[in-house]
Amino acid sequence: MASKSPRRHALLSEMGLTFTVRTKEVDESFPPHLPPKEAVRFIAESKAKAFMHDLTTDELLIVADTIVSLDNDIIGKPGNVQEAISILTRLSGRKHEVHTAVSLVYKGKIESIQEQTDVYFKHLSDSEITHYVDHYQPLDKAGAYGIQEWIGAIGVEKIVGSYTNVMGLPTSLLYSSLSRF
After folding, report:
1. Residues noted as catalytic
2. Pick from 95, 100, 102, 142: CA 20 to 30 A from residue 30's CA?
3. CA 31 and chain centroid, separation
């Protein structure tokens, strides 16, 4: 697994997979004209390409990237507390999309899969947003929130699609893809 994400590590473990973690700094920029679905795939495949020459012939590498979009605008990880508050205020009372692309690298080839989940937030009060930002770590999460945390329990009205995708790894889709190897 090429990811620092503790959530992705936990999800892979819950799937019963044995894995090691490899990381390296990879440029996560993408052409600005790309829509969210294409941007997330571009990033995942860029990360995968960075590891291509580091693998032995029998190793399978899993690389993932997740982005949040609202009105087709990509919302990344907040840079600071004020940005986190601003992002959550934008998401409040709205539907947004969570896109994850997973690239599987095996024997010199990259196969990519993608999932989209629609997340509907109730209207969040300023005090709810502030409480979340003050007591959790929104700065390391796309969209400034973790659905598995307090804000997911009190603020998400419904989702359409994969819950684990919102956490950063569409486990059912990934399992189906891994079963082919």
Report:
1. 65
2. 95
3. 19
